[in-house]
Each structure stands twice: as structure tokens, then as C-alpha cells.
Amino acid sequence: MSSAPTPSRSVIHGDALEWLAAHPGTPGASLLTSLPDKAELGLPIERWRPFFQQAASLCLQAVDEEGLCVFFQTDNREQGRWVSKAGLVLAAAAELGVPLLWHKIVLRRPAGSRSMGRPGYSHLLAFSARATVPAEASSPDVLPELGELPWSHGMGLAAAEESLRTIRRASPSTRLLLAPFCGHGTALEVANRHGLDALGIERNRKRAERARGDR
Predict the structure, then answer these.
(1) Domains delineated in the chain
(2) pTM score, two decimals?
């Protein structure tokens, strides 16, 4: 009996927006990403906001119609006011007419903790043009912990695992996971563990090398 082929992992060192714009509707693809905040990009908020909205829109358009597009986003503060990155993602999806499958909360610290102006939770949002999550495959709306956080700007392993489990249940035709802004490659590693090929895009050379496993 022949064993299943080992899932592939590749990382493109380049601009994620350029790649996404050139590859809409990638056949057999779902997507998992954490879009960068303004601190990561070194942009003022008036330039970061349109960048973020464009990135969310391109991500939503990059997947197969049967695939899922999942965002892991943590709100942040700007001059004492909260900036809702989850709200910006929802607005981009509404403009494109892509339905929301679910919106989960991922706790960053125990429930009841005082946040002292720092985000106490993150958002996990899943969208799809055609896929649905069967009732028997549903999962809790609040995840009690992020799991291991390999990189401060990345997503926790528990959140990535939940995302991949849902992709596998709701979109069995998915063969490839796209991970724009892949950072250190958490999404790629988890996708491979779930039997999917994975393609990351990362503009920072050192992070791209780390995501490939060149360390």
C-alpha cells in the first residue's frame, strides 16, 4: 500500500498584494491570514486603513468559491480610540457580497482579566461564497486561549488549528492553503499537519526564510 504524498510548503519572498491581485479565484484554495497592523508596516493610520481594506478584499477574492477565507485579527488603539480590524474585514466582505460563516472570539488572557488598554481577545472570522459548516461540525464561539504564539505579530497555534479544522470540514475540496503575510509560517505548518499543500507570501526576507524552514 502506497502512503499519501507529503504535503508541500513553499514561500514567495515578495509583495502579498501584488501576488493576490494576480491570482484571483485560485482553484482548490482556501486562505488563512493575519493582516498586518500599522506598526508592522510603519504607516500612519490614514495610509494603513486603505492598505488594510485592499488587502482584505484581495484575500476574499483569492480563494476558490468552495473555499474559505479566514482572518485572525486583533484590534488595536490609536490615540486612545480602538481601531476595529474585524470591522474593516466585515466591511470588505459586505462590499463584495461574500457571506460570513462564523465570527469567533479568541481569548488572549483569562476571562475577567483587566486589559489595561491592551486587547484581551482576538477575532477569528471565516467567509465563503458557497461553503457551509454542517451543524454537527460546529464549534464553540469563544476559544479559551490562543495557544503557543511563535511570533508576537502572528496567530496562536490553537487559533490556527481551529481554522484548519473548519476548512477541512466545510471545504473538503480544498487542496491548498494560501497564507499571505505569512510571517514565521504558523499557518503553513498547521496546514501541512492537516494534509494540505501550503503557499505563503512574505515580503520580509528573514521571516520568509524562517517560514520555509531555512533556519
Answers:
(1) 9-212 (3.40.50.150)
(2) 0.94
